[in-house]
Amino acid sequence: MFRDVSACNTYNYGDALYWDARYIQDANSGSFDWYQRYSALRPFVRKYISLTSRVLMVGCGNAVISEDMVKDGFEDIMNIDISSVAIDMMRKKYENVPQLKCILIRICVRYMSFFPDESFDSVIDKGTLDSLMCGTSAPINAAQMLGEVSRLLKPGGVYMLITYGDPTVRMPHINRPVYNWKVELYVI
């Protein structure tokens, strides 16, 4: 397994304190969508995820992708993040949107025992695996996160990974036989 150093710097992207500080610092900047906006991802999301799916958005931050998905007709999206600051922002912003739920996962996406097995039809990851891949324990962190994603997906469920990571670095983590996933790669 590989560590992706191409997009890493000295920040500790796997640390809640880093993200809390960042969201406090950027509090007046509004929401931020890493990598792609929903409008660019919509064809892929709509192709693989039904509107009635129970969706888990890992590492939601303060992005508007979940909001845009609800506007597009999605009915059940669970947003989780390691940052209490981001979750507080999301809870306040979406307190009157019953389709969006926001939960703080303090220990990170590597340990999501809060949710029972096969809880979700799909999991969307827009940069969370990338964050874990920058740490010194990248292969272990990736395996723990992907193991949890696999456990949480219902049979036939969809894990949608939006990443800037090099496919030669990401695919060994995703293509592990234990997950039994059919993988399709799109370059946007």
From TrEMBL:
The keyword Methyltransferase applies. Residues 56-160 form the Methyltransferase type domain. It holds the Pfam family Methyltransf_11. SUPFAM superfamilies: S-adenosyl-L-methionine-dependent methyltransferases. GO terms for biological process: alkaloid metabolic process; methylation. Keywords: Methyltransferase, Transferase. InterPro entries: Lys/N-term_MeTrsfase_sf, Methyltransf_11, SAM-dependent_MTases_sf. Transmembrane segments: none annotated. The keyword Transferase applies. GO terms for molecular function: S-adenosylmethionine-dependent methyltransferase activity. Belongs to the methyltransferase superfamily. This is Methyltransferase 13.
